[in-house]
């Protein structure tokens, strides 16, 4: 439902950012259908190899940030959304590229189901932090000592999960995150941290699919 509603924000001639994750994978086939049925021209910027492959499967024209450094609208998902439209992202492992694309976008639209709506970030989902593999362990210890959380190295088939940037991810469990804007900056100050899955003041619109239908939240 949320993915379908997000199509309303796509117009002919736009440059579209495509996020990564399970919710966006509902959106991409619908976008492919819209392009064919309405005979519109758009260019998409994917945020991961997985998203790129799926977009190619549905014949969505792709480009890069070098060719199109300014994006009209990005459609992405989130792991948590608070009442101020701050987000936790990175469950799909593409948080750094997603944040770069979000920062380059005139409008950031997030599509979620109602389970992702929370009163405070960090309550139900760990905070992903992308880190450089060299020295990931002392980086983990610094994070745990400074912020009183458990930082777990993300694994895939018994080996460390590797992002498209060839980095690792620490999934950090907080009881709750009181000041996400401060935590984001403090974490980014730690050597070895590449990017933090806190998206503060980046989302313009959140479209939530709920049992009562679509709910739209705007900044």
Notable characteristics:
219 residues; Rossmann fold; 2 domains; 4-stranded antiparallel sheet; globular
Describe it.
It is a single chain. This protein is of the alpha/beta class and 219 residues long. The chain folds into 2 domains: 2-116 and 200-211, Rossmann fold; 127-195, 2-Layer Sandwich (Alpha-Beta Plaits). Helices cover 27% and strands 29% of the residues. It has 6 helices and 15 strands. The strands form 4 sheets. Strands 2-1-3-6-14-15 form a 6-stranded mixed sheet. The two termini are 21 Å apart. The relative contact order is 0.18.
* Low-confidence residue ranges: none
Helix content: 25-40%
Number of H- or I-type helical stretches: 6
Overall domain count = 2
- Quote the distance from N terminus to C terminus: 21 Å
Which structural class should the secondary elements be placed in? Answer: alpha/beta
The quaternary structure here is single chain
Order of strands, main sheet, comes to 2-1-3-6-14-15
């Amino acid at each position: 439902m949320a993915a379908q509603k997000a199509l309303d924000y796509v117009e002919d001639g736009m440059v579209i950012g495509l996020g990564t994750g399970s919710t966006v994978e509902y959106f991409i086939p619908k976008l492919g259908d819209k392009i064919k049925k309405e005979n519109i021209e758009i260019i998409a910027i994917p945020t991961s190899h997985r998203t790129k492959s799926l977009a190619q499967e549905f014949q969505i024209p792709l480009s890069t940030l070098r060719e199109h450094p300014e994006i009209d609208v990005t459609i992405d998902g989130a792991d948590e959304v608070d009442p101020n439209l701050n987000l936790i992202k990175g469950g799909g492992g593409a948080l750094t590229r997603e944040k770069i694309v979000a920062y380059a976008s005139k409008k950031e639209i997030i599509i979620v189901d109602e389970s992702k709506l929370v009163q405070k970030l960090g309550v139900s989902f760990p905070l992903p932090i992308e880190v450089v593999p060299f020295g990931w362990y002392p980086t983990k210890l610094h994070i745990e000592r400074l912020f009183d959380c458990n930082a777990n190295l993300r694994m895939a088939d018994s080996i460390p999960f590797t992002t498209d940037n060839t980095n690792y991810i620490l999934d950090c469990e907080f009881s709750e995150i009181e000041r996400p804007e401060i935590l984001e900056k403090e974490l980014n100050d730690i050597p070895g941290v590449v990017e933090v899955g806190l998206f503060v003041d980046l989302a313009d619109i959140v479209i939530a699919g709920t049992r009562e239908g679509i709910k739209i939240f705007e900044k």
